[in-house]
Design a protein that fits this description.
Layout lengths: L9 E6 L2 E5 L5 E9 L2 E9 L5 H16 L4 H18 L3 H12 L6 H19 L9 H12 L3 H20 L22 H4 L13 H9 L4 H12 L3 H5 L6 E2 L4 E4 L10 E4 L2 H11 L22 H8 L9 H13 L4 H7 L7 H6 L5 H16 L3
Antiparallel strand pairs: 1-2, 2-3, 3-4, 5-6, 6-7
């Protein structure tokens, strides 16, 4: 058949059901005509500028083999296309799976900050390599490409990142977006390729003020103005965490009964924590809470409806020329003082810090929160901080 010379409209047989079809506009393409269950059927095999005569003959031969096996080639092609569309619908990129995972789990996380940490870590380190890939295509080599550059230099971040990638891929497997082993699994898998975190991680403690210097520091702190100074003062006197202090609302404080009830969402252990307030702390809080509604933040941020930034106290320390300290380090100052200078039991000091008991047997019997004993301890601490020398 001289394909190039055929110009008239019509169908021109090449034999075996293969035809060159020419439309009224002169467009040429290959079609296969065949009978199936007494009905004539026509199947397109492609235009001549894409499919040559030789290719068309090969395609026609493959279709005739299907017919010989009792399979309708047109139905087989339609089924294949539907399966491809279904695979595409089931397939998700790594970014899409991460976003869906975070959305599904963030309601159970302690705070919006935790969700932001997930997003920021994945965006910074994982998305450049894995983001636009289908989760079905993620391999051990690709996961290693993400982790190896930071495994030693930023091991804590890398370890958390690995765990987050593993969690997302597990979620994708359960949802049917991927199958097989998880390439980010640690035990019996990546632990053979990467050094143990415990072998390389450097433990860096938060800079803490020696307890013998706390009185002088508090005296200096009281001369500072602004919410950041008062927030740091409250943090020191209660041995609370930064997140609990800056997010505190007026309604959390019962100044008459000298109790600060921190809700679960503001606690690291996601468990309500009652803090006894010494009279000195009540005096600090009265002017801060006065005239405010229960839902108002005690320490307001720069914008309406926002609380003090978690960097505010660190910036305050820098203004005080105490770059050697961190807000969190004052919890260590309190704990050192309690252990070195008082006879208060260890478990009372640990309860004041809202530390979870690691001994499961001990924790099972520790039903109360030792509030009365903690009240005595925190009163002694406030008196020590405010003593005059």
């Amino acid at each position: 058949m001289k394909v190039a010379k055929v110009t008239e409209r019509g169908c021109y047989s090449d034999g075996g059901g293969l035809y060159l079809q020419v439309t009224r506009d002169g467009v040429k393409s290959w079609v296969l005509r065949y009978m199936r269950q007494g009905k004539a059927r026509t199947m397109g095999l492609g235009p001549i500028h894409t499919v040559s005569l030789a290719d068309a003959r090969v395609k026609a031969m493959e279709c005739r083999k299907l017919l010989l096996a009792g399979v309708d080639p047109l139905q087989a092609r339609q089924a294949e296309a539907e399966e491809a569309r279904a695979r595409q619908a089931r397939s998700k990129t790594f970014v899409q799976c991460c976003e869906a995972y975070i959305e599904a789990h963030k309601a159970g996380w302690r705070s919006a900050k935790h969700a932001d940490q997930w997003t920021n870590t994945l965006t910074t380190y994982a998305y450049p390599e894995l983001g636009n890939l289908s989760v079905t295509d993620i391999t051990v080599d690709l996961v290693m490409k993400v982790l190896e550059p930071i495994w030693t230099a930023k091991n804590e971040t890398a370890s958390r990142l690995r765990g987050r990638i593993e969690a997302v891929l597990d979620w994708a497997t359960v949802r049917g977006y991927r199958a097989g082993d998880n390439p980010a699994r640690w035990r019996g898998h990546l632990d053979h390729l990467l050094p143990q975190p415990s072998k390389i991680k450097r433990v860096e403690h938060h800079a803490a003020l020696p307890y013998v210097e706390i009185t002088s520091f508090v005296t200096s702190l009281k001369s500072q103005e602004g919410f950041a100074a008062r927030a740091l003062e409250l943090l020191i006197l209660t041995a609370a965490r930064t997140g609990s202090v800056i997010a505190a609302t007026v309604g959390e404080f019962d100044l008459e009964n000298k109790i600060w009830t921190i809700p679960p969402g503001h606690m690291k252990g996601n468990k309500e924590h009652r803090v006894p307030l010494a009279p000195q702390i009540v005096s600090l809080l009265v002017p801060l809470c006065e005239g405010k509604r229960n839902e108002d933040f005690v320490f307001r941020g720069r914008r309406d409806g926002e609380h003090l930034s978690n960097m505010a106290m660190l910036q305050l320390l820098k203004r005080m020329n105490r770059n050697d300290l961190t807000a969190h380090g004052f919890r260590s100052t309190f704990r050192d003082w309690a252990g070195e200078c008082t006879n208060h039991p260890r478990e009372v000091a640990e309860a004041a810090l809202a530390h979870t008991l690691t001994n499961k047997v001990e924790a099972a019997y520790a039903r109360g929160d030792m509030f009365i004993k903690r009240s005595l301890l925190m009163q002694d601490w406030a008196s020590y901080c405010y003593q005059k020398k």
